[in-house]
Amino acid sequence: MARHELTVLRVLLVSTALAGSALADPPIIDETSLREDRLTPGLYPAAPVPDKFAVPNEPGHPPFEVDWSIGLKGSYSNGTSGERFITTLNPAVSAIHQGVRTDLVLEGAAELARDTDGTLGATALDLDVSGTTRIDRDTTASGGASLSLSRDLPSAPGLDPVIIEPPLSVTGSINGGIDRQLGKFNLGLDGTIARTVYGPTRRSDTGVTDNSSQNVWEGDASLRLGLQATPIIEVFAEAGLGRDWYDQAGAGGTKADATSRTLRAGLAGQWNGLVSASASIGVGHHDFDDGSLSDITTRLYDASITYSPDPTLNLSAALATTVEPTGTDSTGTARVAHTATARFDYTVNSWLRLRASADWARSWLEGSAETEQRHGAGLGADYKVNAHTAVSADYGYAHRDNSASGVRESHTVSLGVTVRR
């Protein structure tokens, strides 16, 4: 095509875009200015907004998008503790508000179970509220609160057979954090306060065990500083400080109040939305107030990786080390645990999704000779009958080797149906 013809074509295109104003100058697009405008608070949302939240401030548009579901599942287990059949009802509700600067999420879920002997009860209840707000172009604040209640069924796989009535556990927590970008540096500060209360345990060998000595307040704070070494790789260091306050002394007459300190360093990266990974190594020190208790020093290993080459496939794995309170029915001072998990999700088509998981854990109780090792695996599939109904099938294997109570394992098969809004 001749140079004169190309010039005529450009003129025609510009004239059409200007709706016939042939005498006007062609618009000059300043790409740098557009990028800066997009980061200006109040002009654009911080992230792409789904269609259903596209116009949250229009008259008549509800401030929250409410969703709910209810599931019914039957599970058959066969293991060391014998056979059992459990029926569970799982209602859940969520409300989401996505605004220009602030996002809010409210979630609630419960599990109601009917045991083999006909016993009815609530085995789990979770209520959560969380929010995120963009203060300015470089600063984001987040916070939340949660309340959870849980109680195992006496016939739960892996539970010690001598436990006739497991304890009720109630945990409430409040958390908050702020993230600030300073050039190539990322600074984050997070804090959590939690309260956990335990009910008594009824056992066939020793009667009723009072777990009130394990009731605890926990406070944790962490400071994280990262350097964006490349557009993909971030180098970071993190320091943590924690405190445990117990209500009263344990069976040995000592309180396990302690101050914990952690320091770790590592790498984190994200490549093109396909792979995200992080790995860190550090040291943790658990310092008991009571001089008669031996302090705990341990290495901390943490790593995770997620691979999502397309929306249909998701692979993830994680490794973590924790030092935490022992929980109920225990004589130790603290539990040190190493855990590893892996998950796989694959959407075959619009109506079928496949799932798989595996986990491994090794833990020991400081101040006690008790150790424990667990591993398990699971397979599952979800079949979407229509836009509101799905059927699921699952198989799970669990193995637990505890030095105090022996080896227990179980195989569980379950089938369920879930109806969604």
Which terms would index this structure?
single chain, 421 residues, mainly beta, Porin, 18-stranded antiparallel β-barrel, 3-stranded antiparallel beta sheet, 21 strands, 63% strand, globular, disordered N terminus, Porin_dom_sf, BBP2_2, signal, Outer membrane beta-barrel protein
Give me the secondary-structure topology.
Elements lengths: L2 H15 L13 H8 L26 E15 L2 E17 L3 E13 L5 E17 L2 E12 L12 E3 L3 E14 L2 E14 L2 E3 L3 E3 L6 E13 L4 E14 L11 E14 L3 E14 L7 E15 L2 E12 L9 E16 L2 E15 L4 E14 L4 E14 L3 E15 L1
Antiparallel strand pairs: 1-2, 1-21, 2-3, 3-4, 4-5, 5-7, 6-9, 7-8, 8-11, 9-10, 11-12, 12-13, 13-14, 14-15, 15-16, 16-17, 17-18, 18-19, 19-20, 20-21
Describe the fold and architecture:
- Residues 1-24 form the signal peptide.
- It is built from 2 helices and 21 strands.
- The protein has 421 residues and is mostly beta strands.
- It has a single domain (69-420), classed as Porin (Beta Barrel), CATH 2.40.160.
- The strands form 2 sheets. It has an 18-stranded antiparallel β-barrel. Strands 6-9-10 form a 3-stranded antiparallel beta sheet, with no helix packed on it.
- β18 (352-366) and β19 (371-384) form a beta hairpin.
- 9% of the residues are buried.
- The model is unreliable at 1-57 (pLDDT under 50).
